Each structure stands twice: as structure tokens, then as C-alpha cells.
Task: structure prediction
Amino acid sequence: MQLYKKIVTKIKTRKIRRRNRSLGGDISLFIILGFFGLFSLFPLVYTIVSAFKPLSEIFIFPPRLKVDNPTLNNFHDLATIVETFRIPLSRYIFNTTIITGLGTVGTVLLGSMAAFPLSKYKFPGASLMNNIIVYALMFNGTVTAIPNYLIMSSLGLVDTYWAVILPAVGSTLGLYLMKNFMVQVPDEMIEAAKIDGASEFKTYWRVVMPLCKPAWITLVILSFQQMWGTTGGIFIYSEELKPVSYVLSQLVSGGIARTGVSSAISLIMLSVPVTVFIISQSNVIETMATSGIKG
Result:
């Protein structure tokens, strides 16, 4: 146990040396990053202000970030339309909560549990399996939509929550991200845990997972964003099982008259994942820097 504590203390106190830059280089870098930061922030700010614009101001070209006559009519109109639904909005929110919660938890658990032996144990076919995981990242979700449907149909899971959850849980992104992060966990820590009598699962859960906290938090955010915005696609047909994003997407397609309502919907759908990302952005940056994912 003492060996384990010494290794943990050594890792926590390890410092990363920074390269020295001149003052001019720091200022130039700050200006460049600030410019791109403001440029990337424009769509978010525009979405927020558009939700409070009257219809006459939304169509002004070029687009403006200024609101001359702020109003809440867009949200009032949205509430009025929602009241006419045959299915209560609370039911759609419940469906989204179930799909998002189970999908996110399943993605993290399955990805991390599969990544642990791949990153810390040598067995025949491990390199081939790693290559398959990397190649699987190249396939877009649209390409795999038909195979996923055929599989869910053969299992009798079409028109259920699981038809949306299982394909997301089986995504290789979580496995790839967790594996690349777990590789950096010192083997000495795992050996120390085994000497202390820890089982394989306890080593994974009590030793490896706490050290990979930035990675699985990042995976939670990515999975949450994906599941939060899912509309059920070709898998869910029953109105009682559809997520809230499907209903809101139908409102968006209501024509020009509902442009203001669409702006309010965009703000509502964007607010939750953006809030989650802002809270956990430090862990996301650390994970992307150490796992080899660039973007």
C-alpha cells in the first residue's frame, strides 16, 4: 500500500516544463488566439440574441448582434404551440432523459472496461484489434445507419429506447479515447494494486478510472451532446417514445412564420450541452492534448 501511495504522490507532483517565449511572442499568440476565439464565439452569441429578436429584426441582412426591440414573444409562441401537442412535453423530456442518461453511462462504462485490457495487457491479436478500432473511426454515422437498423430489427428492438442507445454505446470513439489515456497510467500502479490484493475490476475501478478522470469526463460530454441532440431517426416511430429534439425539429420546419420560434428552440437545445462543456472544459482540453485527438 505504501508503494501505491508513493507512486500516486510522484504522479501528482510531476510538473511539465514550459518552453520559454519572448514577450512579443506571447502577445502575438494572445492576439491570434483572441481573434479566433471571438470568431468562433459569433454563432453562439448570434443564437442567443436571435431568440430575443422580433421577426422583423431576424431577417435583417447583414446579421446584427444588436437587438433594438428585445422580446419574449418567441418563447411565448413556443409555449403556445407546445400546449396543442397530443403528447405532453414532459413525456418527450422524459424520453430524452432516459436515452441520454443510459446512453452516456453505457458509453463510458463499456468504452473504459474494454480499453483497460487493450491498454494494459498483451494478448494475441491486440495490435489487429487496435487497428480495427482506428479504422472504425473513419466511418460516418450515416454509413452505418442501414447496418444498425438491420441489426436492431433482427433483435426486435426497433421502436424502443435501446434501438438508439445500443448503437451509440457501441461506438469506438469512447474506446479509442479511453485506451489512449489509459496507456499513460504507469504499470507500477497496477502491479502495486495487485500486490495489495486488489482484483482486476477493483484495480480498474479504484486505480485506473480516478487517474483517467479527464478522459471519461470528456467522453461523458461528447456522449451527452450526441444523445441530447438525437431525434430517434429511423429507429423510433411511436410518438410516446420520441425525444424532445424530434418534436422541436418538427417545429423548426414550420416555415418562415416560425423563424422566431426556431431561434428560441435553438437556444434551448444549445444551452444544456454548452453549460456542461463550459463546466468541464479544462478536462476536455487535457484529454485532447494527451489522447492524440486533434480538432
Notes: The two ends are 40 Å apart (CA to CA). Residues 14-18, 291-295 have pLDDT under 50 and may be disordered. The CA atoms of residues 42 and 65 lie 9 Å apart.
